[in-house]
Amino acid sequence: xxxxxxxxxxxxxxxxxxVGKTTTSANxxxxxxxxxxxxxxxDADIGLRNLDVVMGLENRIVYDIVDVVEKNCKLxxxxxxxxxxxxxxxxxxxxxxxxxxxxxxxxxxxxxxLKKSHDYIIIDSPxxxxxxxxxxxxxxxxxxIVTTPEISAVRDADRVIGILEANELHDPELIINRxxxxxxKRGDMMNIDDIIDILAIxxxxxxxxxxxxxxxTNKGEPVVMDEKALAGKAYRNIVRRxxxxxxxxxxxxxxxxxxxxxxxKLIFGK
Amino acid sequence: xxxxxxxxxxxxxxxxxxxxxxxxxxxxxxLESKMKTASNFFRxxxxxxxxxxxxxxxxxxxxxxxxxxxxDFEVQIxxxxxxxxxxxxxxxxxxxxxxxxxVQEGMTRFVHGTLRSGQEVSYNGNIVVIGDVNPGALLKxxxxxxVLGSLRGVAQAGVGGNRYAVVAAYSLLPTQLRxxxxxxxxxxxxxxxxxxxxxxxxxxxxxxxxxLPNK
Lengths: 270, 215
Hints:
The structure holds two protein chains of two kinds. By secondary structure, chain A is an alpha/beta fold. Chain A has twelve helices and eight strands. Chain A has one domain (about 10-270): Rossmann fold (3-Layer(aba) Sandwich). In chain A, strands 3-4-2-5-1-6-7-8 form an eight-stranded mixed sheet, sandwiched between helices. The longest helix of chain B has 19 residues, at about 25-40. Chain B is α/β, with parallel strands linked by helices. The model of chain B is unreliable at about 80-95 (pLDDT under 50).
């Protein structure tokens, strides 16, 4: 390495499980790499790893984060290069260990080491606020909270924002995932303003509930690469905002694509 | 030749720990470094006792506790019979066999039931799984691995470098396959075969083929 970089470590967290932390981590990581940054996505969910599967890299794992902190291998040996992106790497979690295998101090050391040679370190935190969450946030410079428009997810997000602030991780940003514009319109789903009202942090993006997410997750190809999917566009916008660009929020209701598909449905009756 | 402070001796029905001197701190640190390098090797062995002429009774108990709780050995914590401490047994002679013979016979661990994500079986011999091995599960054997079901997780045969080791399964669909120092993964557009297959190293490459060609 000719010159040492000083990258930024961003932790993706939520408190609640199943809101899309891993999907968000994979997409932000991939999106940043597509913009030309060098990125490491780090799976901190030891014992319940998924990020490798979502990125389609499961079968390349030889060493993992626990091997790195226990010095069974060099950091470079554990980093898995992405199939499609030159500057994207995955540091997988261990599956046969548990959260006690890594301490916050080891995590800080590891993240600082990664920051020297990469622009962004995206840390995919486990659900909950226990040990795994604690070491996930230890090395982070920024926090991104993922929530869904459900009261339970928002409550947990609020709790996590409080903990982040207590740990000197100020001004986290918010992603609202799985919005369904039709439901919001009918008043059956919390709208964006309601959520911002409670959480009072900056919104960095909204992602619609999109079946292309399920398809891309099962294929191991992050949706951010899908030029046609609305969720892909949402993630591309989020990534641009992370790098400091000003981008308008997606307008989910007036979507040409969905109008078009409605016309198709009318014609073909499917 | 300098005698090791701590040494482990295997006999037919288990292992003994031999200790020189009575310096507990030294013994502890030697034991730690020994276990770091060799704990897998002894895992699953029956632990028969701690032997040492100069060892005090308290220190002996301390070491037993250490083995039980720190290194996870099956230790019965009770007074060690006197005769064990005094009788000098004949160490079993090391039988020299070629590498290819090692995987023809030897100790085998049988695993009954399905291994799920996050479960790991590692054994200083062969492993036979009577059940499935799911993605996220890990098998590590010094010898062969046979799965009487679907192998979808990671299998590592020939740990320590034995290239004659094989991996066989009724349905061989591993996430990743390792034999000795070879690591392979299935091709991206893998076709699922409906017959049992075996993986072995042939001419420096891992080859997978059906072992019942007429079925």
